[in-house]
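Progress against Task 2.4 (sequence-to-structure conversion) is shown through the following example record, which the project officer requested during the mid-term review.
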Amino acid sequence: MIRINLSPTVKRKPQSTRAITAVQMVVPSTNVSKGSIYAVLMLVGWVGVGVGAWVLQSGVVEDTERLKAKASVLVEDTRAINEKIDEEDLQARFNRYEELTAAAEALQQKRRTPVYVYHELTNVLTTGRMPDIDEAEQRKRVALDPQARLALDWDANAVWLTSMQQDGDNLLQITGSARDPDDLSEFVKRLRASARFARVSHPEFALEEVTPPTTSGAPKPLRPGEALHNHYTFELNAQVRYWD
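Structure tokens generated for the chain above:
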């Protein structure tokens, strides 16, 4: 037997699976458009930003006013101090200080006597004597240059001085004569070996030729700086390490 269902069947519509947005969750039954809601939210955000900026700006303005007030106080204090300063009196005191400093330096130079330096030169230019030698420095000097060794049997009469001038605080300009370059070299080595001299320059020297007298009889007495034979004149600078 075949059954036939003559009653019409009703087809069910599939349920909608459309996703619910955040706006619909907040306002599920509103008829306002999404664009309007977004515009309102943006407006509220900009208002919040404006309020925050205004608060920050107010704080900056207050800080600026406080700094201006402090600056004004400092300016007034500076002006008051400048009014109390007497520039002419300060300049006069500074000039007086310079005068006293120059006088003290001049007095110190007058108190400084070259007696000990002259005594050292006497030892250098005396046969059988030696200068005040720093043994450690002399050993170093000889190790670097064997020619710096001093000759113990040197005849110091072969060198004589004609003038000595002080140039500056610690510099001596020495001029003189030597019998030959070897004697001049020994004189310079002894000056450099002396503990009283810090630096001795290389001497500038030249041959001085002397014409022997043609007249008979007793020779004329020599004046300072004169010699009977050819010799070498020299100039050098010696820096004094200490005077006393």
